[in-house]
Amino acid sequence: MPENTVNLCGKLLIAMPGMGDPRFEKSVIYMCAHSDDGAMGLIINKPTPEVTFPKLLEQLSIDGAKDAPDTRIYFGGPVELGRGFVLHSGKYHLDDLTLTVDDRFGMTATRDVLMDMVAGKGPDKALLALGYSGWGAGQLEDELQQNGWLTCDATPEVVFDVPDGDKWVAALKLLGIDPFMLSATAGRA
User: Fold this and answer.
1) pTM of the prediction?
2) Residue 187: other Cβ atoms inside 10 A
3) Burial letters for 29-45: b for 16+ Cβ neighbours within 10 Å, e otherwise?
4) pLDDT digits over 102-134, tens only?
5) Which helix (H) or strand (E) segment is 120 a member of?
6) 92 vs 108: CA distance, rounded Å
7) Are the CB atoms for 64 and 57 separated by under 8 Å?
8) What domain range is 84 assigned to?
């Protein structure tokens, strides 16, 4: 990464008002990866009511669907909608299968984590997303320069515990920002 570029891995992206893409309106995205080649994250505040965890387990032929924990499924982003990703607490780790983001967060994208969740051996906290948000080289940096996103440190509380409808405001509050003070247009000095 260029020296003046901040690595956003493990951070939250907070959509600014007036974002042109309605799929990202008031989105909060947990950033799983960020490098010179691009970036990848999961939207953490847009549940998909049409897909339930037990239904997903049945589709994947994983036994124990009726005993499965109540796990919400989210729209992680518009890329690879048929692929699942589990963002989870950092203590859970599957050898070469888990991407360790930091000591508080990991991400696993295999059915093994789902089987562990059903068996009660999964992560303490988890958020399952279908699809992901992705950016090519330099694309996210351009969006940041155009004031499309704010960034802040992620906390497990905002990611896993705050109600979905409150996550955008909670993320802004991590920055000390009142959402009513934000403008859909930005100026340049």
Assistant:
1) 0.91
2) 6
3) bbbbbbeeeebbbbbbb
4) 999 999 998 999 999 998 899 999 999 999 999
5) none
6) 9
7) yes
8) 11-181
- Cβ proximity of 154 and 30 under 8 Å: yes
> Which pair of tokens denotes residue 115?
């089987």
DSSP 47: B
H/E stretch holding 142: helix 139-145
Coil, strand, or helix at residue 80? Answer: strand
The pLDDT tens digits of the residues spanning 38-55 come to 999 999 999 998 888 888
In a domain, 189, yes or no: no
Burial class of residue 106 in the structure, from the number of CB atoms within 10 Å of its CB (0-12 exposed, 13-18 middle, 19+ buried): buried
Please indicate, yes or no, if residue 99 is contained in any of the structural domains: yes
Domain total for the chain? 1
CA distance 153 to 107: 17
